[in-house]
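User: Assemble these into one structure.

Assistant: Restating your components, then the assembled model:
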Amino acid sequence: MLTLFYAANTCSLASHITLEESGAAFETMRLSFAENDQRKPEYLKINPKSRVPALVTDQGILTETPAILVFIAQMFPKANLIPANDPFRFAQIQSFNSYLCATVHVAHAHRMRGYRWSDDQPAMETMKKKVPQNVGECFDLIEREYFKGPWVMGEAYTICDPYLFTIASWLEADGVDPKRFPKVLDHRTRMAQRPAVKKILARETA
Amino acid sequence: MLTLFYAANTCSLASHITLEESGAAFETMRLSFAENDQRKPEYLKINPKSRVPALVTDQGILTETPAILVFIAQMFPKANLIPANDPFRFAQIQSFNSYLCATVHVAHAHRMRGYRWSDDQPAMETMKKKVPQNVGECFDLIEREYFKGPWVMGEAYTICDPYLFTIASWLEADGVDPKRFPKVLDHRTRMAQRPAVKKILARETA
């Protein structure tokens, strides 16, 4: 059995959607960031990093979105969420997701979580101010260079799609007008219509 | 043919070492960050993100360390740099490398590259000040929770090892005493003795 620890309005949405799309049987445990569940001793046993997502499997616990997405895709190959036996195309998927994780998500995080990198309140305000520029530049690059269409990697829906959808859903709150990125915006609209996405969003916002 | 674009004293060292360990035939192109090579039009055609590493392959160009390391491991399976047909162990490797990329490297980057996240010089100074704490906490976690020994993932040398070695080599400059992490420090010492590592370090520092 798989159990996903998630919190609403976080990057764990990508893993949550991917589990649903994969056809896996899974359970969920919901954390409330408002209640600081992620810092409680019970959760630190699951994920000592105090973050979501964490995926509890029969073999152990996994963290980090790019790793979890590939694990789900490899465990449930019938869902065709990654190409089989094609190291280059797989690497392109990994590269895209790594960019989302280490650059785009990090750019976004400087709006609400500047305290991670500075103890100074005025400094955090200056970080917050730069978020629209940084997140906007990341999405410019995605729109121009990396989004193949109709899905991120072209004709095939892959584990890049729910991850892009998750981070693109933060654009307005990050102070970036999604209309600047017609392909990403259209992708977001089509993603939101997928049955798996509708189901998981309904669960996360319930 | 494979061509690695790298710069000395950067995370591209992990890909450089891994290419050497894999037995691949490859060429290198060295960028000078002091000369801002990474922002020149010729290089932006290779990597529009203005970063290293970039790996030029016969099928196209790859960026992002975690993606490049897995690609090399999959293209040269005889080097045994990742486990074959074991999604969970592979996911543990991916999780470790994703943490290095998106959390540890990012914590480090706030020392020299605070301008990425703020336009304000005093704010950058406050970020710089917090780097020893943040990088130190990351390595505490690695030492306590994730390093299995003798290599990162246990008995088998994997693509986690050159990546950890690369980032651990920045500890002193980040203001963190590596003696706090005996396992990581011993690993760093043993890594530095591997013929492939000696060869690549000699090339990068030449």
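The mean pLDDT of chain B is 98.
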